[in-house]
Design goal:
heterodimer, A: mainly alpha, MetI-like fold, 2 domains, 13 helices, flat, B: alpha+beta, 18 helices, globular
Chain lengths: 309, 545
């Protein structure tokens, strides 16, 4: 097991290095930030002076080496615009994204699991059909559209909730629903199929024969086993949330990391983009690692598997 | 006894009630705004599309950052909200000498920098200008490029010595657009270093910096007993809300008090029953026809550009046909919600002493087709139109799309649309790398007079080239106007320039538009300076309780 984990960690490091290199090269291909920072009337000398100041005059491999060396020591560089350490910006924004993601996951599970269970138990009924339509909609509706609709209804027409920005706990509700509906629908479908499988199992039939109340059979005995894939999937939800965060945070003016990266792209703030993508990638890879470890824990066959074997 | 003694002392100190009343009346007469102002209370929240480059270091950015920093800083002079004229601000008076190569500013006494950074003196002005004028800064303000030195004969007199005359100096040290490099800053505060100056900026304005969360919000607090105007709100919060729909929703729901919204959303604002306020004469919208740069060797009619060169009669017919095939009135109502002054000459707003009485080109598709036929293009031709987006000016691409559709329908042109971010396009400004391409664009006003933008975008030596053409005649106009200190003589020259531009038909002219804001019911009076496109003078906003 230990060897397996070490191997996966080594893979994670290599993956991170590939991501860093890729992002570094892509960001350099998209243009010169000095042109954005200076007035259009700036002379070539002024542009060059700023390039020297920012270290952008050095050859690409040197810039890359400087960046890698910095990251190894926890230095992600400084924002081209704010001149402040990138890590400081990430530190300001990441908690907001994680908090929103956490609330979004809770919402996903809170709607996905019960609806999935009922849909399975009431298979073929009107309730099942409604639940499945709900799930298909959740997977099909674009996040930005849902966000704007929620803002319109609950923020403007009804005036119940803030349409944007991060203020009190109530400001989490609309972005969390926007973020969580897609994954909630996925959880519902997963729970439903998992429950259908479990409800036909011998031990569930036995529990019914024993005369246990149907609620106990469903919620205690069946759901317990049906939630294993759902829980594993929930770990991956964070990754899905990070992807959705860019759109949701922009629509709701949420001060999270997704929006920071998007703004970094728009303003060609390379260090911000590199740092933000690095953090997102690290979270993504760590989540994958966690899922792999959980799988190998529950299913030892995985860790002993060898390529081709 | 104790009570009586207290009463006696109070009378000795304050005098009888009628004296107090008289004192209050005199105080009101001396400084009306201070005496009648309400006690600062509540929060004024403004939702903005962008914070631009988001730094409080004015010498490191081109100027759009005024959108989030102008609240806490002040200039030597300011612009009058109703006339746009220069009025005293940190400088109480001024005069030019040596044919405008020397400017003497008499500074206001007793103006304090925030957070105990002391009184503003000439040394602060000197240090601010010297810092911004260093090589390597982002500043390219004309007078700072000419700056030789600032002398301080006494703490309240600043003598600015320039290398050559600069009659329009005041327009660069006032509170106009792109004037952030000349915010007067505390020498002591700047000497703490750029990092400290950026994290804890110090100014003299009516709002004092409290906090800044990068990419999200900036908070200010009211400066009580400010020398000029104490705000009626206790706090000012700026929120960065990139999505226009969200900004409209926030102001409609009363969650923000002012939302920056482009004129292309005026229908949405009306539907949401949001009151609007507009800054007049903000930008001039049209379609630039790139490539009329004869000395550049590219993009002339010889190189196959039907609309170039400028003086060619056949090319002029093409440009005129484009204008006559464009239904500007339809664009005005459908895209600009009525907020478009249909004008005849670029950057010339109606009602100004320098704007001649010219009739905009009429919408006449049949005549336009005839002109194209005469020019040798009966079925028009193929070209690309760049749809340049800019936060707060989202109507550019929409207006471009409307014009492109009309040219296709009325003249048979084949137009490829190329969406482009303003940030990406900016590199083409100086390099003149868009010959043969049309450009849907909105020029902001940068000063009170049209030549001030033209000299940046239409002079052959101007670093930015967004007008699409260069011509010796235009250079001559601009050189003469920029050296002319007399206002009426400048107006006369500009009138001639406008008439010349009108005859040349250099671009597809749509007109001048406004900067639009949705406001909540808590916002009362708000004086706005024409042409100044970012929220300003928030300290004068009256609070509706």
């Amino acid at each position: 097991m230990q060897r397996y984990i070490l191997g996966r960690v080594a893979q994670l490091v290599v993956s991170l290095l590939v991501v860093v290199t890729f992002v570094f090269l892509l960001s350099r291909l998209s243009g010169d930030p000095v042109l954005l920072m200076l007035d259009v009337r700036a002379t070539e000398e002024e542009k060059q002076a700023l390039r020297v100041h920012l270290g952008l005059d050095k050859p690409l491999p040197v810039q890359y080496a400087v960046y890698l060396a910095g990251m190894a020591t926890g230095d992600f560089g400084r924002s081209v615009l704010s001149r402040r350490p990138v890590l400081e910006h990430i530190g300001e924004r990441l908690p907001n994204t994680l908090m929103l993601g956490g609330v979004g996951i809770l919402f996903s599970i809170a709607i996905g699991v019960p609806i999935g269970v009922y849909s399975a138990v009431k298979r073929g009924t009107a309730l099942d059909h409604v639940a499945r339509v709900f799930a298909v909609m959740g997977q099909a509706v674009p996040t930005f559209w849902l966000g704007i609709m929620l803002i319109l209804v609950f923020g403007v027409w009804l005036g119940w909730l803030p349409p944007g920005g991060k203020s009190g706990p109530e400001s989490f509700i609309l972005p969390a629903i926007t973020l969580g509906y897609f994954t909630g629908a996925a959880i519902m479908r997963l729970t439903r199929s998992s429950m259908l499988e479990v409800l036909g199992a011998e031990y569930v039939k036995f529990a019914r024969i024993k005369g246990l109340h149907e609620q106990v059979v469903v919620w205690k005995h069946a759901l317990k086993n049906a939630t294993i894939p759902v829980l594993t999937f929930s770990v991956m939800l964070f990754v899905i949330f990070l992807g959705g965060a860019v759109v949701t945070e922009t629509v709701f003016a949420w001060p999270g990391l997704g929006r920071l990266i998007l703004e970094g792209i728009n303003t060609r703030d390379y260090p911000i983009v590199q740092g933000g993508v690095m953090v997102f990638s690290a979270i993504y890879l760590l989540a994958n690692l966690m899922v792999d470890i959980l799988y190998s824990y529950f299913n030892p066959k995985i860790r002993y598997a060898r390529p081709g074997g | 006894m104790m009570v009586d003694a207290h009463r006696h002392r109070r009378h000795l100190f304050l005098g009888p009630p009628w004296v107090l009343m008289l004192g209050a009346v005199l105080a009101a007469a001396w400084h009306p705004s201070a005496a009648l102002a309400k006690e600062p209370r509540g929060i004024l929240t403004i939702a903005l599309a962008t914070f631009a480059n988001e730094t409080f270091l004015p010498d490191s950015t081109p100027g759009a950052e005024m959108v989030f920093s102008n609240y806490m800083f002040e200039h030597l002079v300011r612009r009058d909200p109703s006339t746009g004229e220069n009025l005293p601000m940190l400088a109480e008076s001024w005069k030019s000498q040596d044919g405008a190569a020397t400017w003497v500013f008499n500074l206001r006494r007793g103006v304090k920098f925030h957070a105990g950074f002391g009184e503003m003196t000439c040394e602060d002005v000197k240090h601010t200008f010297a810092k911004a004028a260093r090589p390597g800064t982002a500043n390219t303000t004309t007078f700072l490029k000419k700056l030789k030195e600032v002398q301080c004969p006494d703490p309240y007199t600043a003598v600015v010595k320039l290398g050559s005359p600069h009659p329009m100096m005041l327009n660069e040290v006032n509170s106009g657009v792109f004037a952030q490099t000349t915010y007067v800053q505390s020498k002591k505060a700047l000497e703490r270093g750029d990092d400290a100056a950026n994290r804890h900026p110090i100014g003299t304005g009516p709002w004092e910096f409290v906090s800044h969360t990068f990419g999200d919000r900036v908070e200010y607090k009211a400066v009580r007993n400010h020398w000029r105007q104490t705000p009626e709100f206790e706090r000012l919060v700026l929120l960065k809300v990139p999505e226009a729909a969200t900004r409209i929703a926030m102001v409609a729901a009363g969650r923000v008090d002012i939302a920056e919204v482009g004129v292309d959303f005026v229908k949405e604002l009306k539907a949401a029953r949001v009151e609007t306020r507009a800054i007049a004469e903000f930008a001039s919208v049209g379609i630039t026809l790139g490539g009329m740069w004869p000395d550049r060797g590219a993009g002339t009619s010889k190189a196959g550009l039907p609309w170039a060169p400028l003086e060619d009669e056949r090319a002029r017919k093409v440009r005129l046909a484009f204008n006559m095939a464009t239904d500007v009135q339809a664009i005005k109502s459908e895209i600009f919600g009525g907020f478009l002054d249909v004008t005849a000459a670029t950057m010339f707003f109606p009602g100004k002493p320098w704007t001649p009485e010219l009739k905009p080109y009429s919408f006449d598709p049949a005549k336009a087709r005839q002109l194209m036929k005469e020019a040798g293009y009966p079925n028009c031709f193929e070209f690309t139109m760049l749809m340049v987006t800019w936060p707060g000016r989202g109507y550019g691409p929409r207006a471009g799309e409307a014009v492109a559709s009309m040219l296709e329908k009325n003249l048979g042109c084949k137009i490829t649309r190329e969406p482009m971010d303003r940030a990406i396009f900016s590199r083409h400004f100086g390099a003149r790398t868009y010959p043969g391409k049309a450009l849907a664009y909105a020029f902001p006003q940068v000063g009170t007079e049209p030549w001030e933008i033209w000299i940046r975008i239409g002079h052959s030596k101007g670093a930015a080239q967004i007008s699409g053409f260069e011509h010796p005649m235009m250079d001559e106009f601009l050189d003469r106007i920029s050296q002319e200190p007399d206002v009426s003589a400048r107006a006369k020259l500009q009138k001639q320039m406008a008439e010349w531009l009108y005859k040349q038909v250099p671009r597809i002219e749509l007109g001048g538009t406004v900067a639009l804001f949705g406001v909540s019911k808590r916002v009362g009076k708000w004086p706005l300076v024409p042409g100044q496109g970012v929220p300003h003078y928030t300290e004068y906003i009256t609070r509706v309780d």
